[in-house]
Specification:
- The structure is a single chain.
- This protein has 2 domains: 113 residues, Rossmann fold, CATH 3.40.50.300; 85 residues, 3-Layer(aba) Sandwich (Rossmann fold), CATH 3.40.50.300.
- Strand 3 and strand 4 form a beta hairpin.
- The mean pLDDT is 88.
- It is α/β, with parallel strands linked by helices.
- Helix 3 runs parallel beside helix 5.
């Protein structure tokens, strides 16, 4: 079974998907981490971020891997912590916007997701990556709440800066943020993580 979780930044996708996968005993696949890992490798190897074909070749040559303990690696390097640095935050949208890069990544995502029961989160999962997913969730949250969540994760940025960053990111990501017609919306604004996971677990059980 595949559970697809989509939605904008700060809606709770990663936290929910990780907790849900643990609860269900499914594989957790963070597609955003894959683009971040590729961005790290491009910066590390000096590949121009505006060179789509070069980034495509880099992604094809170095598939992103996930460890059982949640680690992310690329080209033999554990980049779990490094891909969350501000430099990667700023650069990853540039890398992810290249259509050829997204095609390589989507192929890898399908490969990983179809290898067993999986929870896959991102921005085009239920529509493009695995449209056959048995359960599709669209997470949303109030913009102010999304900014507060990002503030808790990021040091050194003021709340107003984060709010503006999220607004700009929403605009950039709009072309690759797709809601499946059969996705079930869950507004996480006033829900705890346990509440959200509980709701989705019920949907999974009903779909089995």
């Amino acid at each position: 079974m595949i559970v697809a979780i989509d939605g904008p930044a700060g809606a709770g996708k990663s936290s929910v998907a990780r907790a849900l996968a643990e609860r269900l005993g499914f594989r957790y696949l963070d597609t955003g981490a894959m683009y971040r890992a590729l961005t790290w490798l491009a910066l590390h190897d000096g590949v121009a971020l505006d060179d789509g074909p070069a980034l495509e070749a880099l992604a094809a040559a170095h598939p992103v891997a996930f460890g059982d303990n949640g680690t992310v690696s690329i080209a033999g390097e554990d980049v779990t912590a490094r891909i969350r640095e501000p430099e990667i935050d700023a650069a990853v949208p540039v890398v992810a916007r290249h259509p050829e890069v997204r095609e390589v990544m989507r192929g890898r995502q399908r490969e990983l997701g179809r290898s067993g029961d999986s929870v896959i989160e991102g921005r085009d999962i239920g529509v493009v990556v695995v449209p056959e997913a048995e359960v599709k969730i669209w997470l949303v949250a109030d913009p102010a709440v999304r900014a507060r969540r990002r503030h808790a994760e990021r040091d050194g940025l003021a709340m107003d800066e984060l709010s503006e960053e999220l607004r700009r990111r929403d605009e950039r990501d709009a072309v690759n943020t797709h809601r499946a017609d059969d996705a079930i919306e869950v507004d996480t604004t006033e829900l705890t993580l346990a509440d959200v996971v509980g709701r989705i677990v019920a949907l999974v059980e009903a779909a089995r």
